[in-house]
Amino acid sequence: MKTFLSLTLSVAVLLALAANLHSQAPAPAAPPSPLQTLQAMKAKNQELIEKQTQTLQKLDEIEKEAEQLKIFGKRT
User: Is the pLDDT confidence value at 42 over 60?
Assistant: First the structure.
């Protein structure tokens, strides 16, 4: 009976220590508040709008160059 009790106690201590080791991992970050989420979305949207504006400008330049090539092609 003593052996069973000491074995059970040993297993319980090992399980408690193992659980303690796993709990030392950093806690997951708290979910952001709705205001923080909105601000992050606004910032990403602004970045996206800026990229789209740059892309649109490049496309306009390419379109102008293509028109010039058509004009030069007709002259020759």
Answer: yes
Per-residue confidence (pLDDT) for residue 74, from 0 to 100: 81
pLDDT at 72: 83
The single residue listed with the structure tokens 């030069």 is 72
Which pLDDT band holds residue 32 (cuts at 50, 70, 90)? confident
Q: Where along the chain do its domains lie?
A: 33-76
pTM, to two decimals: 0.51
Q: HEC states along the chain?
A: CHHHHHHHHHHHHHHHHHHHHHCCCCCCCCCCCHHHHHHHHHHHHHHHHHHHHHHHHHHHHHHHHHHHHHHHHHHC
71-to-5, 16, 21 alpha-carbon distances in Å: 97, 82, 75
